[in-house]
Amino acid sequence: GDGQSDGEEFRAGTQPTDGQSCLHVMRLEMVGGTGTRLLWTAVPGQTYRVFFNDGLTEPDWKPMDGDVLASGSTASKVDAEGTSAGQRYYRVMLVD
After folding, report:
1. In three state form, how does the secondary structure of the chain look?
2. How far lies 4's CA from each of 36, 42, 55, in Å?
3. Do residues 50 and 63 lie in contact, with contact meaning Cβ atoms separated by under 8 Å?
């Protein structure tokens, strides 16, 4: 009932029958005073893309440079401009 097919859930490493099982950002932390590190649940060998938006009313999410290939059950990416932008929203997506 979450709009994802069982195949998409399998690729993302989530359980289709568990409503609490989802791809999600686990933590945001400051890095070096101006950056933000995102840490999310991942599937080893899968590739992820991080998008950002400086406001929820803006329609277009901008991709950050460089996809992330997960090597473990979590993956991370640093947004070097994360805290200097004021407020920023993130989205992590599995790359097809």
Report:
1. CCCCCHHHHHHHCCCCCCCCCCCCEEEEEEECCCEEEEEEECCCCCEEEEEEECCCCCCCCEECCCCEECCCCEEEEEECCCCCCCCCEEEEEECC
2. 29, 17, 26
3. yes
Both tokens of residue 58?
């803006």
pLDDT tens, position by position, 28-60: 888 877 788 999 888 889 899 999 998 888 889
Pick the closest to residue 81 from 61, 65, 94, 93 (CA basis).
65
Give the residue, 91 or 3, on which the prediction is more confident: 91
pLDDT of residue 83: 65
Phi/psi-derived region of residue 91, left when phi > 0, alpha when psi is between -120 and 50, beta in every other case = beta
**Parallel/antiparallel/unpaired status of strands 68-69 and 74-79:** unpaired
